[in-house]
Specification:
The longest helix is centred in the N-terminal third of the chain and has 14 residues, at about 20-35. The mean pLDDT is about 100. The protein contains nine helices and seven strands, in the order H-H-H-E-H-E-H-E-H-E-H-E-H-H-E-E. The N and C termini lie far apart (about 50 Å). Strand 1 (about 60-65), helix 4 and strand 2 (about 85-90) form a beta-alpha-beta unit. It is an alpha/beta fold. A seven-stranded mixed sheet has the order 3-2-1-4-5-7-6, with helices on both faces. Bound molecules: 5-(4-fluorophenyl)-2,3-dihydroxy-N-(2-hydroxyethyl)benzamide and magnesium ion. 5-(4-fluorophenyl)-2,3-dihydroxy-N-(2-hydroxyethyl)benzamide binds near residues 141 and 173.
Length: about 220
Amino acid sequence: KGTTREQRALKYLKEHARQGDPDSVLETFDEFCRTQEWAMNAAEEKGDILDEIVRELQPTTCLELGTYCGYSAVRIARNLSPSARLITIEVNPDYAAVAREVVKLAGLQDKIEVINLDSADVIRELKTKYDVTKLDLVFLDHWKYLYIRDIKLIEEEKLLKKGSVVFADNVIIPGAPGYLEYIRGSKNYKSTFYSVHFEYMDDMKDGVEKSVYIGDE
Ligand SMILES: O=C(NCCO)c1cc(-c2ccc(F)cc2)cc(O)c1O
Ligand SMILES: [Mg+2]
């Protein structure tokens, strides 16, 4: 088939979701993944925890690493206050193109900025080029071996403040061993592990890690 899985998912969303309705986009994407083709969305139990974090934290500035098709970007942004923003970074141009369409379909293009670049390059420019002062929420969901590189960069750039939350997907499957060891061993974070089902798979377990920054920045 000339199309990619991500393009087929977008087509399904355009045909079945209500334009401008984030909840409809997410429900429809979940339906696609349950009935047509699996996709690596931070959905179901993972999404419920993400919703809880956003609702409690009420973040103003959010950063997501690993947009994929925009599912978690929409999930985060639908709960943001009017002036709050989400910057989401996706290195894969095909994924980024689909994500921009999904964000538009959800009517959240004024809250979400999708950047098709390498995460490290953007993190280094968040203060100067992207007008960011501090990050209230960071969601790690890109290549698992890059979690540790990027969290260290975020610390180096002094982008976190007391109470900032770093939420990491897939700490069991595929796993991010280096990251877990680092963040749990750091005196600057208070970390909590949540055992959850792997997205759209009732017989597989994954894990997510919520870390609250208590350092001095
Ligand atoms: O690589 C991932 N994300 C970054 C790429 O854009 C990723 C992979 C998987 C997964 C896939 C295939 C499998 F067999 C096991 C795990 C799941 C996820 O939630 C993910 O975020
Ligand atoms: Mg993931």
